[in-house]
Amino acid sequence: MSDRANFGSKLGVILATAGSAVGLGNVWRFPYMAGENGGAVFIIIYVACVLLLGIPCMISEFIVGRHGRANTARSFQTLANGKPWALIGYMGVLTGFLITGYYAVVSGWCLQYVWASLIGHLQGDPQYFKTYFIELSSDPVKPVFWTVVILVMTYLIIENGVRNGIERASKMMMPTLFVLLLIIVGASCMLPNAYKGIEFLFKPDFSKINSDVFLSALGQSFYSMSIAMGCLCTYASYFSKETNLTKAASQIAIIDCLVAILAGLMIFPAAFSVGVEPDSGPSLIFITLPNVFQQAFSGMPVMGYIISLLFFVLLSLAALTSLMSLHEVSTAFFQEELHTTRKRAALIVTVSTAIIGAFCSLSLGAYDGLTFYGEALFDWFDFVTGQIFLPVVGFLTCIFIGWFVPHKIVRDEFSNWGELKDYVRYFHRYLFLIKYVCPLAILLIFLHQLGIL
Ligand code: PFF
């Protein structure tokens, strides 16, 4: 497959893959978890999880993808040598596919909020913001409309290919996202009493350390680094033979951590400056924050308007770059397995994930029939993909690479066929982590999430 698409530059590799990693998980989930779980202590544990477990897992997916130079399922198949390990790749593609629809719904809400900020609808008392979000998420038409809009935007990028679509869009969107982040952090940290928010985020509270904190940090680091959903493997199939996998994984991890910490510095100083307790989950960004921005800048309404608008643009950019990578997993799969054009494959994915997204969205209130055992379809998708498929695929990938794939293949990919002499000495450390430490850690997260531990 020598005519296979690839990224045109090192910067493209880093920005596109970091674009996959930096997403909604960084902006709302990480800051809140850090604040609630001991501040600086959580951040240290999180960074340790990223370094010791996240980076080796990321490198493993890179190895499978670059070696296979095909979609995730086929890349695993190449290494599996006729053994059932190939199933891991299919599960990865399925996870990526199912998440695309569900992630698109939340991304669609972000777009709706950009629109609402733009036309000045995000103004009112705290109750107004609550009602606004509840009405939006349970509306039968609006969220479905925005889900389709963001999926069509993704399609328009993806159909242009790896270099002209994904890489070019990432090179524009990621720096923009970073600049917006810095502007909002600056504005938020200059508010009166902002230091209280900074304290909430960074003040170490050792009394909060327990096994829950470790396992939450571990789970969050995997989700945030886009591990086990086929994305990293698919993107790595577009890497060149010269890409240094360890260096790329480390740089992406640093960007991902940095954005997560900056997101905390964007949210908490503003919230504490107006005395609003930050919540968790969707209510933090869709209910609490618009209210916080409005109150914090009540003396300068134009500033409040601009910051709120910029915040939702930032959120939408973060969501879109992650959605692109999720969409690409299935697009590459359908293109290669159905022997069709990229455009047609992308269209199949867009239409089918839009249907999944529509059902997920409708299950949140517009149509009660879409609930099973008392839980909305939306929550089922979240649970099955994030809490079952993700750990299972992650665990099996470690076992596969650590115990099954010949070490020579793994070492060759790791060291670029011996070219990276400085990195050869890291190989044994990597292998140790991937054989023993990572599978054990993932097993613990899995049992923890199921409430067994
Ligand atoms: N890493 C993304 C986030 O932090 O929001 C979410 C994600 C994207 C997970 C792509 C998995 C994935 F394959």
Q: Could you characterize what this model shows?
A:
This protein has 453 residues and is mostly helical. The protein has a single domain (10-449), classed as Amino acid/polyamine transporter I, CATH 1.20.1740. The chain has helices at residues 10-21, 24-36, 40-68, 72-80, 86-118, 126-137, 142-158, 161-189, 194-202, 211-224, 231-236, 245-273, 282-296, 301-337, 342-362, 377-404, 407-414, 421-424, 427-449; strands at residues 371-372, 375-376. It has a two-stranded antiparallel ribbon with strand order 1-2. α3 (40-68) crosses α17 (407-414). The longest helix is centred in the last third of the chain and has 37 residues, at 301-337. The N and C termini lie far apart (46 Å). It binds 4-fluoro-L-phenylalanine. Residues 20-21, 23-26, 96, 223-224, 226, 229, 231, 322, 325-326 line the site of 4-fluoro-L-phenylalanine (PFF).
Write the layout of secondary structure elements.
Elements: H1 10-21, H2 24-36, H3 40-68, H4 72-80, H5 86-118, H6 126-137, H7 142-158, H8 161-189, H9 194-202, H10 211-224, H11 231-236, H12 245-273, H13 282-296, H14 301-337, H15 342-362, E1 371-372, E2 375-376, H16 377-404, H17 407-414, H18 421-424, H19 427-449
Antiparallel strand pairs: 1-2
Helix pairs in contact: 1-8, 1-12, 1-14, 2-10, 2-12, 3-4, 3-10, 3-12, 3-16, 3-17, 3-19, 4-5, 5-7, 5-14, 5-15, 5-16, 6-13, 7-14, 7-15, 8-12, 8-14, 9-12, 10-19, 12-13, 13-14, 14-15, 15-16, 16-19
The structure holds 4-fluoro-L-phenylalanine (PFF).
4-fluoro-L-phenylalanine (PFF) binds next to helix 1, helix 2, helix 10 and helix 14.
